[in-house]
Amino acid sequence: MLDVTHDPGSRSWVESANTSGHDFPIQNLPFGMFIRDGEKRVGVAIGDKILDLTECAKDQTLGTDLDALILACTTGLNALMGAPKAMVRRLRHRLFELLSSQNNSTIQAREDRYLVDRLGAKMATPCEIRNYTDFLTSAHHTERHGRFKGLEVPLPPAFKYLPVAYHGRASSITVSGSDVVRPHSQWKSADGLIQFGLTPALDFELEMAAFVGEGNILGSPIPLHQAREHIFGYCLLNDWSNRAGQWWEQILGPFLGKSFGTTISPWIITEEALLPFRTSAPVRDKADPETLPYLTSHRHQCDGGLEVMLEAQLHTEKMRAVSQPPEIITRTRLSHLYWTFSQMLTHHASNGCNLQAGDLLGSGTISGPEPESMACMAEKTEAGKKPFELSNGETRLWLEDGDEVILTARAEKAQFASIGFGECRGRVLPGVDWPR
Predict the structure, then answer these.
(1) Is residue 88 a contact partner of residue 31, using CB atoms and an 8 Å limit?
(2) What are the residue boundaries of the structural domains of the chain, listed by start?
(3) Which of 11, 80, 242, 308 has the fewest CB atoms within 10 Å, i.e. the most exposed one?
(4) Is 141 a catalytic residue?
C-alpha cells in the first residue's frame, strides 16, 4: 500500500519541510484545525507552515468533491474523518502534488494567501470528540500499579485476554498549550483520614491515541482485518491523573481522578502517513494464554504494530527562570504495549458498540520494562514514596504547580523519511479557592 507520497527522496517547495529531522516533511501531511480571521480553518502542517485548506477549497483548488468535503468541516474534522478512506487517500495525493517541489502549483504562486506561520498559529481541538475511551494496555504499567496497591495478583487475569478500558470524559479534552488547574479531590491519607482539598498527588501519563474515522452501525462489530480502515489517524495524549483521588474512589473505574483534564496534540498523523512504520504486533510469552481468534490473525501479527518512539519532558519554574531547557524524564516506545490499536478498536466494537467519526481511543500509559521507560510519576517514584532527582538538583514525588509536561513522538525506519507528531504541552496551574 506504499506509494509516491512515502518516497523518502521527495521534497517540498516549502523549504523548512526539507530540514533533516523536521516533524512535518512532505511525507507526513497531518491535519488539524486552526484559527484564522476569527474562524476555524482546516489546515495541513508542512514544515514551519500551515497550508490553509479551507482557503484552498474556497478557491476550488482541490477538486470539486474534495473542496466540498473540506468546506463541510466548519467546526472540526469530523466530516473528513468519516469520509471513505479512498477519498481521504485521494486528498493526501492531491496535497502531495500541490506541495511537491516537482510542481509549479497555484498554491506556491500565492503563498501569502494559502500559507500561515505554524509556530504563531492558534490551534483548536481537531474535531468534535463525542466519545473518549482510555485503554490500559501496558503490562509493565499495570503490574507496577498492582504492586503499589499491594494486590496479591498485580496483573488482573483479564488483562491478557482483552484490552481493558474505561469510558472517559470527552468535554474536558483540550488541545496542546492549554493549562491544567490542580483539581480538588477527596482522598484517604496515610493515617487513614478521609480528606478533601487540592490534590497532593498530580501526575501525567504519556499516551498515544487513535481517532476513529468511518464508524460502524449499532449492533455491527468491526473485524480485526478491517480495523485500520476505521482509524483516521493518531495524536499524542496526556492523561492527567489525580492519583490521590483515583486510588481512593476507583471501584467501578476512574472518575474524578481523570475527568478534570486531558491534553492532546493538535495535529492528526494519518494512518496512511504511518504505513512505512508498520511492524509486527507484540510477541507474547509462551506462558501467556492464547489470544482468542477475533483478536488475532497472521496478517495482524505481521504488521499490526507501529514503531514509534516517545518522550516526556519536564520544565519546572526554576528551569525557566534560568533559561534551562526542559529535561527528558521518559523515553519509551509504542511496541511496549501488550495490545495494538487495531485490537483495541475491534474489541471496543465487538459487542456492537457504534463508534463514530472523531471518537478518541487512548492507548493507556506507554511504559516499558526499563526505568527510563516509566511513563508516569507514579511509576518513577514508586507511588510517591521515592523522589527522583532532576539535573538541576530539584526533586519530585508528584507534579508541582508551575511544572510543564511536554510529550513528543517520532516514527523512524531505515530507508524512509522520519515523521514527528508535534508537541503535546500543558502546564500545571495552582488550584482555585473552594467556592463559598
Answers:
(1) no
(2) 4-124, 132-429
(3) 11
(4) yes
| 318-324 long-range contacts, CB within 8 A, separation 24+ | 318/392, 318/394, 319/392, 320/404, 324/392
pLDDT in tens, 44-96: 999 999 999 999 999 999 999 999 999 999 999 999 999 999 999 999 999 99
Helix (H) or strand (E) holding 350: none
CATH number for the domain running over 132-429: 3.90.850.10
Kindly tell me the burial class for residue 237, based on how many C-beta atoms sit within 10 Å of its own C-beta (0-12, 13-18, 19 or more): buried
On the question of pLDDT at 134 being above 80, the answer is yes
Mean pLDDT calculated for residue range 176-195: 96
In 101-156 the beta strands, taken as DSSP E runs, fall at: 115-117, 122-124, 132-136
CA 60 to chain centre: 32
Domain at 4-124, CATH class: mainly beta
Q: Which of 22, 141, 336, 347 is catalytic?
A: 141
CA distance 7 to 93: 12
> Looking at the chain, how many residues does it have?
436
pTM of the model: 0.97
Task: Provide DSSP, 55-79.
Answer: HHHHTT-S-HHHHHHHHT-SSSSHH
